[in-house]
């Protein structure tokens, strides 16, 4: 090894330390087994339950005009999510699921129901 008067020891900067910590956390997450299925994942992306839901027996038009709480009660066990609230679109996945309902709410009441 050649010594030099301009040689400085290698130090870890804050950014490098953060990067190494992030890599360590990701590696830890990858090593864990997948989570078990939740029996009732609830609304907002839930896949529904094998028993189905009350709204399947009534039809989507029954939801129109209901409050959010009334619609949520009817949709228990269904695959559903909020599509928009007071005219503002909400984040959603792009996968197509014909059983899933996306409901639009304006002023606390359901104004539209879309499938997919």
Give a summary of the structure in a few sentences.
With 116 residues, the chain is an alpha+beta fold. The chain has helices spanning 14-30, 54-58, 68-74; strands at residues 80-85, 88-89, 101-106, 109-115.
Overview of the structural elements:
The chain is built from 3 helices and 4 strands. A hairpin with a 2-residue loop joins strand 3 (101-106) and strand 4 (109-115). The protein has a 4-stranded mixed sheet with strand order 2-1-3-4, with no helix packed on it. Residues 29-45 have low confidence and may be disordered. The protein has a domain at 54-115: 2-Layer Sandwich (Trypsin Inhibitor V, Chain A). The chain starts with 13 loop residues before the first helix and ends with a strand. The protein is α+β, with helices and mostly antiparallel strands.
């Amino acid at each position: 090894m050649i010594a030099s008067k301009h040689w400085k020891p290698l130090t870890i900067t804050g950014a490098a330390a953060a990067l190494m910590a992030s890599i360590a956390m990701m590696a830890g997450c990858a090593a864990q087994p997948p989570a078990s299925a939740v029996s009732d994942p609830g609304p907002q992306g839930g896949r529904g339950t094998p028993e189905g839901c009350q709204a399947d027996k009534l039809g989507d038009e029954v939801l129109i005009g209901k409050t959010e709480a009334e619609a949520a009660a009817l949709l228990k066990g269904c695959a559903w999510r909020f599509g928009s609230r007071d005219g503002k679109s909400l984040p959603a996945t792009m996968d197509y699921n014909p059983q899933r309902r996306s409901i639009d709410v304006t002023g606390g009441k359901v104004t539209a129901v879309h499938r997919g």
